[in-house]
TrEMBL record:
Superkingdom of source: Bacteria
Pfam family, any one: CarbopepD_reg_2
Keyword Kinase attached: no
Signal peptide: 1-18
Keywords in alphabetical order: Signal
Protein name listed in UniProt: Carboxypeptidase-like regulatory domain-containing protein
Gene3D superfamilies hit by this protein: Carboxypeptidase-like, regulatory domain
InterPro entries, per the entry: CarboxyPept-like_regulatory
């Protein structure tokens, strides 16, 4: 009897956490769009609309991600709070026909050199990053702004990234990519700022034990791991240590963690803005920390806001407000795990 009750409780618990997201996708003429892709951004959770344009997603654990609806030749639609705005009618509008941009500049850089540095800063220079292949590189357009020493890249179709090292294929809609150089250059050593933004759909294509170990290795020491530990108050020489300048710091003096619904609210308690010299427009907040992972991997983290929101997986929802240098800055698309990735390590809590 006890066994039956326990089994019922486990089954009930798993069902209780499941949430459904549903709706219908139409074109501008209010005709259903079958075969549209619907997914939670940055995850492996996706589906296609049926013959009537309907979609239905069951999510076993809530994840704070936008719902993306796209269809070839149409503008994508994003739903910021899909669990709150359920069973919606979604209308997609046609994209204007776009011609590939051809920019000819006297004494300019070659496409090959621009593509090489794009791979470096989009895929990354790690083992995982170097193993990735972009299957449709011909779709990438480059523009170099010689007045501002700025390289930008764009694509009218999603980039198809094959990451054999981690067993994923990724469909990435590139919305922004830029590299700022301190002089007219296309060399990595001259880059002063880098940025890429977009939405990603992960598909798992390999899931053997070797790949699982690689994923876990990539997770350990990642920004996702750092924020998961920060919100769980897990610190130590075998995990992350926090430093201010050259001195080890007590995290409780610099971070306040509070529950905020299904998120963790992190307040950064110290503003370093008065102590730093910044070129250009100054932000309202600037707080700098050094972190050391397992006594060997060094990184610097800069917070440009005093408030962050972190979900249960360790995802920072304020992506633009945090900058990295050191080891964490080398981890790009090649080391990116789905937002719904769960570490296989035994969780620890309340350690100092």
């Amino acid at each position: 009897m006890k066994i039956r009750l326990l089994l019922f409780f486990l089954l009930f618990s798993s069902v209780a956490f499941a949430q459904a997201i549903q709706g219908t996708v139409f074109d501008e003429q209010k005709k259903p769009l079958p075969g549209a892709t619907v997914y939670l951004d940055g995850t492996t959770i996706s589906t296609l609309t049926d013959s009537e344009g309907k979609y239905y997603l069951v999510v076993k654990e809530k994840i704070n991600s936008s719902l993306v609806i796209n269809y070839l030749g149409y503008n994508s639609v994003f739903i910021a709070n899909p669990f709150e705005n359920n069973n919606q009618n979604v209308y997609l509008s046609l994209k204007p026909e776009a011609l590939k941009e051809v920019v000819i500049v006297k004494n300019g850089f070659s496409r090959k050199s621009m593509l090489n540095i794009f791979r470096e800063y989009f895929l990354g220079r790690t083992v995982a990053g170097k193993s990735c292949k972009i299957e449709n590189e011909d779709e990438i357009n480059f523009v170099y702004d010689y007045d501002n020493n700025l390289l930008t890249a764009s694509s009218s179709v999603p980039l198809l990234v094959n990451n054999e090292h981690l067993g994923y294929k990724i469909k990435f809609d590139l919305y922004e990519f830029s590299l700022k150089f301190y002089k007219k250059s296309i060399k990595s050593q001259d880059v002063t700022q880098s940025l890429f933004l977009g939405t990603a759909l992960f598909s798992e294509v390999i899931n053997d034990e070797k790949v699982k170990l690689r994923r876990e290795k990539v997770y350990q020491g990642s920004s996702m791991h750092f924020f998961k530990n920060l919100t769980s108050n897990v610190w130590g020489k075998d995990d992350f240590l926090l430093f201010r300048k050259s001195f080890q710091a007590d995290p409780s003096q610099f971070f306040k963690v509070e529950d905020n619904g299904d998120l963790k609210k992190v307040t950064i308690l110290v503003n370093d803005l008065k102590d730093v010299l910044l070129a250009g427009k100054k932000p309202k907040f600037y707080s700098v920390y050094n972190v050391l992972y397992k006594k060997k991997e060094q990184s610097q983290i800069v917070f440009k806001t005093d408030t962050l929101y972190i979900d249960n997986f360790g995802n920072n929802l304020n992506v633009k407000d945090v900058e990295y240098s050191g080891v964490l800055s080398t981890k790009k698309m090649g080391d990116l795990l789905p937002m719904n990735y769960k570490s296989q390590a035994v969780p620890k809590t309340n350690l100092k």
